[in-house]
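for ur thesis appendix - UDP-glucose 6-dehydrogenase. copy paste whatever u need, i formatted it the way the template wanted (i think)
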Amino acid sequence: MRITVIGTGYVGLVTGTCLAEVGNDVLCLDLDASKIEILNNGDIPIHEPGLLEMVRRNVAAGRLQFTTSIEESVAFGIVQFIAVGTPPDEDGSADLKYVTAAARNIGRHMTEYKVVVDKSTVPVGTADKVRQAVIEELQKRDESIPFAVVSNPEFLKEGDALNDFMRPDRIVIGAEDARAIELMRNVYAQFNRNHDRIVVMDMRSAELTKYAANAMLATRISFMNELANLADKLGADIEQVRLGIGSDPRIGFDFLYAGCGYGGSCFPKDVNALINTARENEIDLKVLTAVDQANEKQKHVLLDKIVARFGADLKGMNFAVWGLAFKPNTDDMRAATSRVLMEGLWARGATVTAYDPVAMAESKRIYGDEPRLSYAESSMDALDGADALAIVTEWKEFRVPNFDALKAALKTPAIFDGRNLYSPEFMREQGIEYYAIGRR
Ligand SMILES: NC(=O)C1=CN([C@@H]2O[C@H](COP(=O)(O)OP(=O)(O)OC[C@H]3O[C@@H](n4cnc5c(N)ncnc54)[C@H](O)[C@@H]3O)[C@@H](O)[C@H]2O)C=CC1
Ligand SMILES: O=C(O)[C@H]1O[C@H](OP(=O)(O)OP(=O)(O)OC[C@H]2O[C@@H](n3ccc(=O)[nH]c3=O)[C@H](O)[C@@H]2O)[C@H](O)[C@@H](O)[C@@H]1O
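the 3d part is after this line
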Protein backbone atom coordinates (compact mmCIF):
# COMPACT_ATOMS: atom_id res chain seq x y z
CA MET A 1 0.00 0.00 0.00
CA ARG A 2 1.10 3.59 -0.59
CA ILE A 3 1.23 5.45 2.71
CA THR A 4 2.12 9.04 3.56
CA VAL A 5 3.40 9.96 7.01
CA ILE A 6 3.31 13.63 7.97
CA GLY A 7 6.00 14.55 10.50
CA THR A 8 9.34 12.78 10.87
CA GLY A 9 9.77 13.09 14.64
CA TYR A 10 9.98 10.23 17.12
CA VAL A 11 6.55 8.89 16.13
CA GLY A 12 6.39 9.75 12.43
CA LEU A 13 9.81 8.43 11.51
CA VAL A 14 9.30 5.19 13.45
CA THR A 15 5.81 4.72 11.98
CA GLY A 16 6.93 5.37 8.42
CA THR A 17 9.98 3.17 8.71
CA CYS A 18 8.17 0.24 10.32
CA LEU A 19 5.37 0.42 7.76
CA ALA A 20 8.00 0.31 5.00
CA GLU A 21 9.77 -2.56 6.75
CA VAL A 22 6.70 -4.78 6.28
CA GLY A 23 6.48 -4.00 2.58
CA ASN A 24 4.51 -0.78 2.17
CA ASP A 25 5.65 2.12 0.01
CA VAL A 26 6.04 5.05 2.35
CA LEU A 27 6.65 8.74 1.77
CA CYS A 28 7.46 10.83 4.85
CA LEU A 29 6.84 14.56 4.79
CA ASP A 30 8.38 17.13 7.10
CA LEU A 31 8.28 20.89 6.74
CA ASP A 32 11.55 21.14 8.63
CA ALA A 33 13.88 21.02 5.64
CA SER A 34 16.91 20.33 7.85
CA LYS A 35 15.38 17.02 9.02
CA ILE A 36 14.59 15.93 5.47
CA GLU A 37 18.11 16.85 4.41
CA ILE A 38 19.57 14.69 7.18
CA LEU A 39 17.28 11.81 6.16
CA ASN A 40 18.06 12.18 2.47
CA ASN A 41 21.76 12.11 3.36
CA GLY A 42 21.35 8.67 4.90
CA ASP A 43 21.25 9.74 8.55
CA ILE A 44 18.45 10.28 11.10
CA PRO A 45 17.71 13.40 13.17
CA ILE A 46 17.00 11.54 16.45
CA HIS A 47 18.62 8.83 18.53
CA GLU A 48 16.52 5.67 18.57
CA PRO A 49 18.21 2.25 18.82
CA GLY A 50 18.02 0.26 15.55
CA LEU A 51 16.23 2.99 13.63
CA LEU A 52 19.15 4.16 11.49
CA GLU A 53 19.76 0.66 10.16
CA MET A 54 16.07 0.13 9.44
CA VAL A 55 15.77 3.48 7.67
CA ARG A 56 18.81 2.75 5.50
CA ARG A 57 17.57 -0.75 4.64
CA ASN A 58 14.17 0.51 3.51
CA VAL A 59 15.52 3.50 1.64
CA ALA A 60 17.88 1.16 -0.22
CA ALA A 61 14.96 -1.15 -1.02
CA GLY A 62 13.10 1.84 -2.50
CA ARG A 63 10.20 1.53 -0.05
CA LEU A 64 10.95 4.62 2.05
CA GLN A 65 11.33 8.18 0.81
CA PHE A 66 11.40 11.65 2.33
CA THR A 67 10.14 14.97 1.05
CA THR A 68 9.32 18.54 1.97
CA SER A 69 6.75 18.78 -0.82
CA ILE A 70 3.18 18.90 0.50
CA GLU A 71 1.72 18.36 -3.00
CA GLU A 72 3.83 15.26 -3.52
CA SER A 73 2.99 13.83 -0.09
CA VAL A 74 -0.76 14.37 -0.44
CA ALA A 75 -0.78 12.77 -3.88
CA PHE A 76 1.27 9.77 -2.68
CA GLY A 77 -0.67 7.81 -0.06
CA ILE A 78 -4.26 6.70 0.08
CA VAL A 79 -3.62 6.64 3.83
CA GLN A 80 -2.24 9.88 5.29
CA PHE A 81 -0.88 9.54 8.83
CA ILE A 82 -0.63 12.79 10.79
CA ALA A 83 2.22 12.40 13.30
CA VAL A 84 3.09 16.02 14.08
CA GLY A 85 3.72 17.52 17.51
CA THR A 86 0.93 18.55 19.90
CA PRO A 87 2.96 20.59 22.40
CA PRO A 88 1.36 22.15 25.47
CA ASP A 89 -0.23 25.57 25.07
CA GLU A 90 0.32 28.25 27.73
CA ASP A 91 -2.57 26.85 29.81
CA GLY A 92 -1.43 23.21 29.47
CA SER A 93 -3.97 22.25 26.82
CA ALA A 94 -2.70 20.61 23.63
CA ASP A 95 -1.80 23.04 20.85
CA LEU A 96 -3.45 21.66 17.73
CA LYS A 97 -2.04 24.10 15.20
CA TYR A 98 0.30 21.56 13.59
CA VAL A 99 -2.43 18.91 13.37
CA THR A 100 -4.96 21.23 11.76
CA ALA A 101 -2.31 22.66 9.41
CA ALA A 102 -1.48 19.13 8.25
CA ALA A 103 -5.20 18.40 7.76
CA ARG A 104 -5.69 21.63 5.80
CA ASN A 105 -2.79 20.74 3.54
CA ILE A 106 -4.49 17.45 2.73
CA GLY A 107 -7.80 19.18 1.98
CA ARG A 108 -6.03 21.77 -0.14
CA HIS A 109 -4.32 19.26 -2.43
CA MET A 110 -6.25 15.97 -2.47
CA THR A 111 -7.79 14.86 -5.73
CA GLU A 112 -9.10 11.43 -4.72
CA TYR A 113 -10.33 9.45 -1.66
CA LYS A 114 -8.02 9.67 1.37
CA VAL A 115 -8.02 8.21 4.84
CA VAL A 116 -6.70 10.89 7.19
CA VAL A 117 -5.30 9.10 10.23
CA ASP A 118 -4.49 11.03 13.35
CA LYS A 119 -1.58 9.41 15.15
CA SER A 120 -0.64 12.44 17.23
CA THR A 121 -1.94 12.53 20.79
CA VAL A 122 -4.92 14.86 20.63
CA PRO A 123 -7.81 15.88 22.89
CA VAL A 124 -11.17 14.23 22.47
CA GLY A 125 -13.05 15.88 19.62
CA THR A 126 -9.98 16.62 17.49
CA ALA A 127 -11.02 14.13 14.81
CA ASP A 128 -14.07 16.34 14.23
CA LYS A 129 -11.79 19.38 13.90
CA VAL A 130 -9.57 17.50 11.45
CA ARG A 131 -12.63 16.57 9.39
CA GLN A 132 -13.84 20.18 9.47
CA ALA A 133 -10.43 21.50 8.37
CA VAL A 134 -10.38 19.16 5.36
CA ILE A 135 -13.98 20.02 4.45
CA GLU A 136 -13.28 23.77 4.61
CA GLU A 137 -10.33 23.43 2.27
CA LEU A 138 -12.33 21.28 -0.14
CA GLN A 139 -15.14 23.84 -0.08
CA LYS A 140 -12.70 26.62 -0.92
CA ARG A 141 -11.87 24.66 -4.04
CA ASP A 142 -15.50 23.81 -4.69
CA GLU A 143 -14.69 20.12 -4.42
CA SER A 144 -16.55 17.31 -2.63
CA ILE A 145 -14.01 14.50 -2.74
CA PRO A 146 -14.84 11.72 -0.24
CA PHE A 147 -12.46 11.09 2.66
CA ALA A 148 -12.49 9.45 6.09
CA VAL A 149 -10.94 10.46 9.39
CA VAL A 150 -9.47 7.84 11.73
CA SER A 151 -8.02 8.16 15.22
CA ASN A 152 -5.11 5.77 15.66
CA PRO A 153 -3.17 6.76 18.78
CA GLU A 154 0.41 5.57 19.21
CA PHE A 155 1.67 3.81 22.34
CA LEU A 156 5.40 3.41 21.56
CA LYS A 157 8.07 4.32 24.11
CA GLU A 158 11.17 6.21 23.09
CA GLY A 159 14.28 4.06 23.33
CA ASP A 160 12.26 0.91 22.57
CA ALA A 161 10.17 2.35 19.79
CA LEU A 162 10.86 -0.21 17.05
CA ASN A 163 9.99 -3.13 19.29
CA ASP A 164 6.83 -1.39 20.50
CA PHE A 165 5.74 -0.60 16.96
CA MET A 166 6.60 -3.97 15.44
CA ARG A 167 5.09 -5.95 18.35
CA PRO A 168 2.25 -3.81 19.67
CA ASP A 169 0.15 -4.82 22.69
CA ARG A 170 -2.85 -3.34 20.92
CA ILE A 171 -3.69 -1.29 17.88
CA VAL A 172 -6.48 1.16 18.62
CA ILE A 173 -8.53 2.26 15.63
CA GLY A 174 -11.18 4.86 16.19
CA ALA A 175 -13.31 5.03 13.07
CA GLU A 176 -16.85 4.97 11.86
CA ASP A 177 -16.31 4.45 8.12
CA ALA A 178 -16.29 0.80 6.99
CA ARG A 179 -13.92 1.37 4.06
CA ALA A 180 -11.46 3.20 6.29
CA ILE A 181 -11.59 0.47 8.93
CA GLU A 182 -10.86 -2.14 6.25
CA LEU A 183 -7.91 -0.11 4.96
CA MET A 184 -6.54 0.30 8.48
CA ARG A 185 -6.84 -3.45 9.08
CA ASN A 186 -4.74 -3.92 5.93
CA VAL A 187 -2.16 -1.35 7.05
CA TYR A 188 -1.70 -3.23 10.32
CA ALA A 189 -2.17 -6.80 9.05
CA GLN A 190 1.55 -7.60 9.34
CA PHE A 191 1.66 -6.45 12.98
CA ASN A 192 -1.41 -8.47 13.88
CA ARG A 193 -0.56 -12.02 12.88
CA ASN A 194 -0.14 -13.88 16.16
CA HIS A 195 -3.51 -12.88 17.56
CA ASP A 196 -5.90 -10.04 16.86
CA ARG A 197 -4.63 -6.93 18.56
CA ILE A 198 -6.86 -4.50 16.72
CA VAL A 199 -9.44 -2.78 18.88
CA VAL A 200 -11.96 -0.84 16.81
CA MET A 201 -13.96 1.81 18.61
CA ASP A 202 -15.50 5.20 18.05
CA MET A 203 -13.12 8.11 17.51
CA ARG A 204 -13.76 9.90 20.79
CA SER A 205 -13.09 6.75 22.79
CA ALA A 206 -9.87 6.16 20.83
CA GLU A 207 -8.70 9.69 21.56
CA LEU A 208 -9.51 9.30 25.26
CA THR A 209 -7.86 5.85 25.40
CA LYS A 210 -4.48 7.40 24.61
CA TYR A 211 -4.71 9.91 27.46
CA ALA A 212 -6.10 7.27 29.81
CA ALA A 213 -3.10 5.00 29.16
CA ASN A 214 -0.50 7.71 29.79
CA ALA A 215 -2.40 9.08 32.77
CA MET A 216 -2.61 5.63 34.38
CA LEU A 217 1.13 5.02 33.92
CA ALA A 218 1.98 8.48 35.29
CA THR A 219 -0.31 7.81 38.26
CA ARG A 220 1.55 4.62 39.12
CA ILE A 221 4.86 6.47 39.07
CA SER A 222 3.70 9.41 41.20
CA PHE A 223 2.08 6.98 43.63
CA MET A 224 5.35 5.10 44.05
CA ASN A 225 7.35 8.31 44.29
CA GLU A 226 5.19 9.58 47.14
CA LEU A 227 5.46 6.21 48.91
CA ALA A 228 9.24 6.29 48.39
CA ASN A 229 9.45 9.68 50.09
CA LEU A 230 7.44 8.23 52.96
CA ALA A 231 9.68 5.14 53.04
CA ASP A 232 12.66 7.48 53.41
CA LYS A 233 11.13 8.88 56.59
CA LEU A 234 10.00 5.50 57.91
CA GLY A 235 13.19 3.59 57.24
CA ALA A 236 11.43 1.25 54.78
CA ASP A 237 12.73 0.25 51.34
CA ILE A 238 10.57 1.11 48.32
CA GLU A 239 12.24 -1.55 46.16
CA GLN A 240 11.11 -4.24 48.60
CA VAL A 241 7.66 -2.70 48.57
CA ARG A 242 7.64 -2.80 44.76
CA LEU A 243 8.45 -6.50 44.81
CA GLY A 244 5.88 -7.07 47.49
CA ILE A 245 2.99 -5.43 45.65
CA GLY A 246 4.05 -6.16 42.05
CA SER A 247 3.66 -9.88 42.61
CA ASP A 248 -0.09 -9.32 42.79
CA PRO A 249 -1.10 -9.79 39.12
CA ARG A 250 -3.74 -7.10 39.55
CA ILE A 251 -0.87 -4.67 40.16
CA GLY A 252 2.11 -6.10 38.21
CA PHE A 253 5.78 -5.11 38.48
CA ASP A 254 6.07 -2.64 35.60
CA PHE A 255 6.07 1.13 35.92
CA LEU A 256 6.41 0.99 39.68
CA TYR A 257 9.99 2.28 39.86
CA ALA A 258 10.35 5.22 42.19
CA GLY A 259 12.73 7.88 40.94
CA CYS A 260 13.36 11.58 40.49
CA GLY A 261 10.15 12.17 38.55
CA TYR A 262 8.82 11.31 35.14
CA GLY A 263 9.81 13.48 32.21
CA GLY A 264 9.65 13.32 28.44
CA SER A 265 7.44 14.86 25.85
CA CYS A 266 4.35 12.93 26.81
CA PHE A 267 3.48 12.10 30.44
CA PRO A 268 3.75 15.68 31.75
CA LYS A 269 2.06 17.16 28.67
CA ASP A 270 -0.69 14.55 28.39
CA VAL A 271 -1.58 14.56 32.09
CA ASN A 272 -2.01 18.32 31.92
CA ALA A 273 -3.93 18.21 28.67
CA LEU A 274 -6.39 15.72 30.17
CA ILE A 275 -6.80 17.85 33.29
CA ASN A 276 -7.54 20.77 30.98
CA THR A 277 -10.04 18.89 28.86
CA ALA A 278 -11.83 17.86 32.04
CA ARG A 279 -11.82 21.41 33.37
CA GLU A 280 -13.37 22.68 30.13
CA ASN A 281 -16.11 20.16 30.79
CA GLU A 282 -16.48 21.26 34.39
CA ILE A 283 -14.91 18.09 35.78
CA ASP A 284 -12.13 18.41 38.33
CA LEU A 285 -9.72 15.47 37.91
CA LYS A 286 -8.42 15.46 41.47
CA VAL A 287 -6.29 12.32 41.19
CA LEU A 288 -4.48 13.49 38.07
CA THR A 289 -3.98 16.99 39.45
CA ALA A 290 -2.23 15.40 42.41
CA VAL A 291 -0.22 13.12 40.10
CA ASP A 292 1.12 16.17 38.28
CA GLN A 293 1.83 18.14 41.45
CA ALA A 294 3.61 15.17 43.03
CA ASN A 295 5.75 14.83 39.91
CA GLU A 296 6.71 18.51 39.82
CA LYS A 297 7.80 18.15 43.44
CA GLN A 298 9.63 14.90 42.75
CA LYS A 299 11.78 16.58 40.13
CA HIS A 300 13.32 18.57 43.01
CA VAL A 301 14.00 15.56 45.21
CA LEU A 302 17.70 15.26 44.27
CA LEU A 303 18.31 18.96 44.86
CA ASP A 304 16.50 18.71 48.21
CA LYS A 305 18.75 15.83 49.23
CA ILE A 306 21.85 17.72 48.10
CA VAL A 307 20.76 20.78 50.10
CA ALA A 308 20.01 18.61 53.14
CA ARG A 309 23.58 17.25 52.91
CA PHE A 310 25.60 20.31 51.89
CA GLY A 311 23.39 23.27 52.93
CA ALA A 312 21.35 25.76 50.94
CA ASP A 313 24.33 27.74 49.70
CA LEU A 314 26.22 25.66 47.14
CA LYS A 315 28.43 28.51 45.93
CA GLY A 316 31.74 27.30 44.58
CA MET A 317 30.69 23.67 44.49
CA ASN A 318 30.71 21.48 41.39
CA PHE A 319 28.42 18.52 40.87
CA ALA A 320 28.88 15.70 38.40
CA VAL A 321 25.56 14.85 36.74
CA TRP A 322 25.20 11.47 35.02
CA GLY A 323 22.37 11.42 32.52
CA LEU A 324 20.69 14.32 30.73
CA ALA A 325 18.04 12.51 28.67
CA PHE A 326 14.62 12.00 30.30
CA LYS A 327 15.21 8.24 30.12
CA PRO A 328 17.91 5.91 28.73
CA ASN A 329 18.32 5.11 25.02
CA THR A 330 17.11 8.46 23.79
CA ASP A 331 18.59 11.92 23.25
CA ASP A 332 15.26 13.54 24.17
CA MET A 333 15.52 16.12 26.97
CA ARG A 334 11.96 17.41 26.83
CA ALA A 335 10.75 17.91 30.44
CA ALA A 336 13.82 16.00 31.66
CA THR A 337 14.52 16.04 35.41
CA SER A 338 18.18 16.79 34.61
CA ARG A 339 17.10 20.29 33.59
CA VAL A 340 15.32 20.96 36.88
CA LEU A 341 18.30 19.66 38.84
CA MET A 342 20.94 21.59 36.91
CA GLU A 343 18.96 24.82 36.96
CA GLY A 344 18.40 24.36 40.72
CA LEU A 345 22.11 23.81 41.32
CA TRP A 346 23.00 26.89 39.28
CA ALA A 347 20.46 28.99 41.20
CA ARG A 348 22.26 28.00 44.41
CA GLY A 349 25.66 28.97 43.06
CA ALA A 350 27.00 25.55 41.98
CA THR A 351 28.36 24.47 38.62
CA VAL A 352 27.72 21.19 36.81
CA THR A 353 29.88 18.79 34.86
CA ALA A 354 27.52 16.60 32.88
CA TYR A 355 27.88 13.36 31.00
CA ASP A 356 25.32 11.55 28.87
CA PRO A 357 26.12 8.92 26.23
CA VAL A 358 23.90 10.54 23.57
CA ALA A 359 22.09 13.64 24.85
CA MET A 360 25.01 16.08 25.23
CA ALA A 361 24.46 17.51 21.74
CA GLU A 362 20.81 18.16 22.63
CA SER A 363 21.89 19.77 25.90
CA LYS A 364 24.30 22.05 24.02
CA ARG A 365 21.43 23.01 21.72
CA ILE A 366 19.25 23.88 24.75
CA TYR A 367 21.83 25.58 26.96
CA GLY A 368 24.23 27.00 24.36
CA ASP A 369 27.42 28.21 26.02
CA GLU A 370 26.00 28.28 29.55
CA PRO A 371 29.13 29.00 31.64
CA ARG A 372 27.94 26.99 34.64
CA LEU A 373 27.70 23.81 32.57
CA SER A 374 30.56 21.81 31.16
CA TYR A 375 30.59 18.39 29.54
CA ALA A 376 32.82 15.39 30.18
CA GLU A 377 34.03 12.81 27.68
CA SER A 378 33.06 9.92 29.93
CA SER A 379 31.14 9.25 33.13
CA MET A 380 34.37 8.89 35.09
CA ASP A 381 35.83 12.10 33.63
CA ALA A 382 32.79 13.97 34.91
CA LEU A 383 33.78 13.09 38.49
CA ASP A 384 37.22 14.70 38.40
CA GLY A 385 37.28 17.36 41.08
CA ALA A 386 33.50 17.29 41.55
CA ASP A 387 32.12 17.63 45.07
CA ALA A 388 29.58 14.83 44.62
CA LEU A 389 27.67 12.86 41.98
CA ALA A 390 23.98 13.05 41.02
CA ILE A 391 22.47 10.38 38.78
CA VAL A 392 19.38 11.33 36.80
CA THR A 393 19.14 8.72 34.01
CA GLU A 394 19.66 4.98 34.36
CA TRP A 395 21.92 4.40 31.34
CA LYS A 396 23.30 0.84 31.41
CA GLU A 397 26.88 2.07 31.48
CA PHE A 398 26.26 3.69 34.90
CA ARG A 399 25.27 0.40 36.51
CA VAL A 400 28.68 -0.95 37.47
CA PRO A 401 31.18 1.90 37.74
CA ASN A 402 34.62 1.51 39.28
CA PHE A 403 33.67 2.55 42.81
CA ASP A 404 37.28 2.91 43.98
CA ALA A 405 38.02 5.35 41.17
CA LEU A 406 34.74 7.09 41.85
CA LYS A 407 35.62 7.58 45.52
CA ALA A 408 39.07 8.82 44.65
CA ALA A 409 37.75 11.36 42.15
CA LEU A 410 34.99 12.95 44.25
CA LYS A 411 35.80 15.49 46.98
CA THR A 412 33.02 13.95 49.09
CA PRO A 413 32.25 10.31 48.33
CA ALA A 414 28.52 10.95 47.98
CA ILE A 415 26.07 9.74 45.35
CA PHE A 416 22.59 11.24 44.96
CA ASP A 417 20.90 8.55 42.92
CA GLY A 418 17.59 9.52 41.30
CA ARG A 419 17.17 6.07 39.72
CA ASN A 420 18.07 3.69 42.56
CA LEU A 421 20.83 1.98 40.61
CA TYR A 422 22.88 0.53 43.45
CA SER A 423 22.39 -1.55 46.56
CA PRO A 424 22.48 0.68 49.64
CA GLU A 425 24.18 -2.11 51.55
CA PHE A 426 26.96 -2.37 48.96
CA MET A 427 27.41 1.40 49.07
CA ARG A 428 27.83 1.25 52.85
CA GLU A 429 30.49 -1.46 52.42
CA GLN A 430 32.26 0.76 49.89
CA GLY A 431 32.22 3.70 52.28
CA ILE A 432 30.12 5.79 49.92
CA GLU A 433 27.40 8.09 51.19
CA TYR A 434 24.36 6.98 49.23
CA TYR A 435 21.20 9.06 48.93
CA ALA A 436 18.66 7.18 46.82
CA ILE A 437 14.87 7.40 46.49
CA GLY A 438 13.15 5.50 49.27
CA ARG A 439 15.97 2.95 49.80
CA ARG A 440 17.43 1.81 53.09
N1 LIG B 1 7.57 10.82 21.39
C1 LIG B 1 6.89 9.75 21.74
O1 LIG B 1 7.43 8.80 22.31
C2 LIG B 1 5.42 9.65 21.46
C3 LIG B 1 4.70 10.73 20.98
N2 LIG B 1 3.36 10.62 20.74
C4 LIG B 1 2.61 11.76 20.19
O2 LIG B 1 2.91 11.83 18.79
C5 LIG B 1 2.96 13.19 18.36
C6 LIG B 1 4.32 13.48 17.73
O3 LIG B 1 5.30 13.37 18.73
P1 LIG B 1 6.86 13.37 18.38
O4 LIG B 1 7.10 12.47 17.22
O5 LIG B 1 7.56 13.15 19.65
O6 LIG B 1 7.04 14.90 17.89
P2 LIG B 1 8.33 15.58 17.24
O7 LIG B 1 8.29 16.98 17.69
O8 LIG B 1 9.53 14.75 17.48
O9 LIG B 1 8.03 15.53 15.67
C7 LIG B 1 7.00 16.22 15.05
C8 LIG B 1 7.46 16.56 13.62
O10 LIG B 1 6.37 17.08 12.87
C9 LIG B 1 6.86 18.07 11.97
N3 LIG B 1 5.73 18.90 11.53
C10 LIG B 1 5.03 19.82 12.23
N4 LIG B 1 4.03 20.32 11.46
C11 LIG B 1 4.10 19.69 10.26
C12 LIG B 1 3.32 19.74 9.08
N5 LIG B 1 2.24 20.51 8.98
N6 LIG B 1 3.68 18.96 8.04
C13 LIG B 1 4.74 18.13 8.12
N7 LIG B 1 5.50 18.02 9.24
C14 LIG B 1 5.18 18.80 10.30
C15 LIG B 1 7.90 18.79 12.80
O11 LIG B 1 8.80 19.49 11.98
C16 LIG B 1 8.55 17.62 13.54
O12 LIG B 1 9.65 17.09 12.82
C17 LIG B 1 2.63 14.02 19.59
O13 LIG B 1 1.25 14.28 19.61
C18 LIG B 1 3.00 13.11 20.74
O14 LIG B 1 2.26 13.39 21.90
C19 LIG B 1 2.69 9.45 20.92
C20 LIG B 1 3.36 8.34 21.36
C21 LIG B 1 4.77 8.34 21.66
O1 LIG C 1 2.68 8.94 24.63
C1 LIG C 1 3.89 8.79 24.65
O2 LIG C 1 4.70 9.57 24.19
C2 LIG C 1 4.50 7.60 25.29
O3 LIG C 1 4.77 7.96 26.67
C3 LIG C 1 5.44 6.96 27.41
O4 LIG C 1 6.69 6.65 26.80
P1 LIG C 1 8.01 7.53 27.02
O5 LIG C 1 7.64 8.87 27.55
O6 LIG C 1 8.77 7.45 25.75
O7 LIG C 1 8.88 6.77 28.11
P2 LIG C 1 8.55 5.90 29.43
O8 LIG C 1 9.39 4.70 29.38
O9 LIG C 1 7.10 5.71 29.62
O10 LIG C 1 9.11 6.84 30.58
C4 LIG C 1 8.52 8.09 30.87
C5 LIG C 1 9.13 8.66 32.14
O11 LIG C 1 8.69 7.90 33.28
C6 LIG C 1 9.81 7.55 34.07
N1 LIG C 1 9.52 6.26 34.74
C7 LIG C 1 9.10 5.19 34.01
C8 LIG C 1 8.79 4.00 34.63
C9 LIG C 1 8.91 3.88 36.02
O12 LIG C 1 8.63 2.83 36.66
N2 LIG C 1 9.33 4.97 36.73
C10 LIG C 1 9.64 6.15 36.12
O13 LIG C 1 10.02 7.13 36.81
C11 LIG C 1 10.99 7.48 33.11
O14 LIG C 1 12.20 7.66 33.78
C12 LIG C 1 10.66 8.62 32.17
O15 LIG C 1 11.15 9.85 32.70
C13 LIG C 1 4.57 5.70 27.41
O16 LIG C 1 5.26 4.66 28.11
C14 LIG C 1 4.25 5.24 25.99
O17 LIG C 1 3.37 4.13 26.02
C15 LIG C 1 3.58 6.40 25.25
O18 LIG C 1 3.32 6.06 23.91
